Amino acid sequence: MAQMAWHVALGRGNPAWDAVDRSNPLWQDALHPDAAQARGLVAEIGRRVADEVAFVVPDAQGEIVLPDSRWKRCAAGVVSQHLYIQAFLDYPDAANETVREIGLFAGGRPADGLPPGQRWFAPGQLAGVGHLMRLVRYAVPVQRSPSNRPLFHFVETF
After folding, report:
1. Which residue numbers in the chain have pLDDT < 50?
2. How far apart are CA 63 and CA 72, in angstroms?
3. Do the Cβ atoms of 158 and 106 come closer than 8 Å?
4. Phi-psi region of 57 (alpha: psi -120 to 50; beta: other; left: phi over 0)
């Protein structure tokens, strides 16, 4: 899995999600009715190649901090069942777009003839989208600003 191409994709999602009544305790069900069957994003804006893919292990003092856990990178050559995937967006990636969903994809590939080293791909620049490994839908849409470089990171367990 560590040898596969990993991408973090951003999507516009469905603007109708913005009208969901968040005072209803079941509001999340309105955003996720199709999540289990999803093969892609509702309206993908583009995707960024992962900047880092590394094996990790749980560690209470680890340098990788996620909302519910901490992780430590494995030493070179050590394999674990946990894979850390990190991607920083560049300033112009999805600039000024409304983002309602994020997808983590494994195994996608760019179309032929693109410039070497290209790291951001529009949907039409892909020869294969890969497999959707994780889907995150925001409770409140995020307006993507060209003045920052957000970090997305995940730990996938296999």
Report:
1. none
2. 6
3. no
4. beta
What does pTM read for this prediction? 0.90
List, for residues 72-81, the tens digit of each pLDDT value. Answer: 999 999 999 9
Which is nearest to 32 in space by CA: 43, 15, 12, 17?
A: 17
CB 105 within 8 A of CB 53: no
- pLDDT digits over 59-72, tens only? 999 999 999 999 99
Q: What are phi and psi of 124, to 5 degrees?
A: -75, -5
Q: How far apart are CA 66 and CA 63, in angstroms?
A: 10
